[in-house]
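Progress note, project year one: complex with alpha-L-arabinofuranose.
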Amino acid sequence: MHFSWSPLKRTFLTNLSVIAVLGMILAACGGSSSGSGTTSIHPGCTVGSNTQLVKLTSAHKVAWSQNALDGAWRFAEEASIVQAAAQNGYQLLRTNANNSDVQQGQDIENLINDRPDVLLVDPHTEDAEVKPILDARKACIPVIVVDRNVNESLASPGRDFATFVGSDFQKQGVLAADALIEALGGPNTNATIVELSGTTGSSPAILRGGGFDGELASKAPGIKIVASQTANFARATGQQVMATLIQQYPNIKGVFAHNDEMAIGAITALKAAGKRPGQDIKVVSIDGTKDAINLVLSGEEYAVVQSNPRLGPLVFQTLGQYIKGQDLPAWVVQPDKVFKKADGSAAAYLPEAF
Ligand code: AHR
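Model obtained:
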């Protein structure tokens, strides 16, 4: 078959080629996604050296850097983020750093190379993820920090990242101290207790510890913390650490664990050492897992301060506001409660515990 182009068709094809080349140039200068690239979807934002938080007018691809998937709290948080992303019509890219700052740094750099429209980060510790978060800002990708915060003297909300969405960990520590003071007989009590703290350098460990210690010192100075040791927010480690501590300090009357997992491990260790948690030794922890609430109901734990892991709705509502150009507060606070047996709050909460 003979095939020849008319002048009109040739002009049309030439125009098409010009459009294609222009498209490629546009993609290189201002296109949407180009691997590791030097591109930006944000006019005026130069990838690699951006100094300001970029504004979003729309978003489709959301990246999510999770610090670990290792307990009921984190599984509940992950499920909440996944569900809220789907409900709001976003594509979600996910990583799990397995409690490693090195891994999370790599995860975030890889996610930046995937060119998401926005990046959500739950930092393992306060300082270690600051650099990759600043790298995201430099790459014209806005970040929302979720659950655990970063050190805000190194990266600030409104300048380096859009906002922080999470609980008030300091207040949780204060509420835990109030509950333990009550369990031990009130502010005039003299007693010794131990503290099992979370991952060293993480914002919940720093703030819960600070809130608890400060409240105890000011409200019940006769209650002394004789040992404070990390058990990395893990049940098995909580059990091991408590097994040692109860040998060293057999007369303690209370345990404050920065999360439920460590408290559950500690209760196992206390029982193995012949103690009766709930009677000889009062235990208070933070989170609101089903396992811990059941211990409250059985009397082996005195109280659990909530740290609500279902952050997805608040995170995606905040993202929606950001896209609409609304000013965000530096901190979007997730409210929490306290669950005890005596006032019925633990029983009422149990059906929604995770
Ligand atoms: O950052 C929230 C804390 O991290 C939760 O209390 C804990 O269970 C998790 O490991």
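Confidence is low (pLDDT under 50) at residues 1-40.
Residues 71, 73-74, 147-148, 204, 233, 259, 261, 286-287, 307 surround alpha-L-arabinofuranose (CB under 6 Å).
No further modelling is planned for this target in the current period.
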